[in-house]
Amino acid sequence: xxxxxxxRDMNLTRIVFVLTLDRKKMTERIVIAETGDAILRLEQNAxxxxxxxxxxxxxxxxxxxxxxxxxxxxxxxRLHESYGKVFPFERARWKAVKPCADFLREKYESGEPxxxxxxxxxxxxxxxxxxxxxxxxxxxxxTLPLYKPFSRSLGLWQERPASAxxxxxxxADSQVELWYPARKRPFECVAAYASFQPLIYYYLxxxxxxxxxxxxxxxxxxxxxxxxxxxxxxxxxxxxxQAVESKRKFDERAKGDMLERVHETAYYxxxxxxxKLKRQKEPDEEKIAAVAAAFEVFRAEAVKxxxxxxxxxxxxxxxxxxxxxxxxxxxxxxxx
Length: 336
Description:
Elements: E1 15-22, E2 27-34, H1 35-44, E3 51-56, H2 59-62, H3 71-82, H4 90-108, H5 113-132, H6 136-147, H7 161-164, E4 177-179, E5 189-192, H8 197-210, E6 213-216, E7 223-226, H9 236-278, H10 285-310, H11 316-335
Helix pairs in contact: 3-4, 3-6, 4-5, 5-6, 9-10, 9-11, 10-11
């Protein structure tokens, strides 16, 4: 079914937002359609629906429509104002409300189910109230409750079930339809119409009841729902990426450890040879001076070559081979 954001009456019956949660498979299914078609889709995989997607559990809450600038309310207010204006021609009314229709169409085409449903319900309420002569106040009564969760300061996954309904101003804000399992529909469903508030409460309550937890993935940083707080990776793709990254870090640490080890071994090889010369009963000062000068040259060159290995400009194997050559050099100097 395609939704038409024009001023013609679509003659739609009640559109509902239906949610099903599968604890075992860790999935959520969302169906948006007229009530009869939604039931047909859930029970017989039939019916003409607007939206039908099965997604990872918790995705509705983490990706829920956010409106910190309250653009939804601003567009509803603009539609509300259009009721009080007298338009000599129908096209004049359409010109006045078209920016609002464009905003709602953009939200509908976003693919985010909460935004899609709110856009349709807003336009449906506008047309119904206009054609039936219900007036602007009825329009606001039908739309503003939908927008309450949009302007939140925290993510919905950070809410507690008890606080999700704390600002419920009307009975409709705390009521939800519960469809029990029937025929080929193995799970209970909740259907929202007037407000998202009770549906959010239901979702948060189920998550708390199942003792699941929202976590931030260590690999990609995405917020996801996990069966326990010990799980820190959101999926198989990130798990593989994390394994590759862990191996890379391990290899770097091992490489760094080996680099330090071969450098330290070579340094003390030189140091001990020079120390042995100085501790002889009759030290050869000329030889000691020559070896000490060579030691300083070796130390400076070793530090330089070590830095090149760290920066990836040289290989550890080449550095190790050079250090072995320098050991031969100190052996030659001390035997002269």
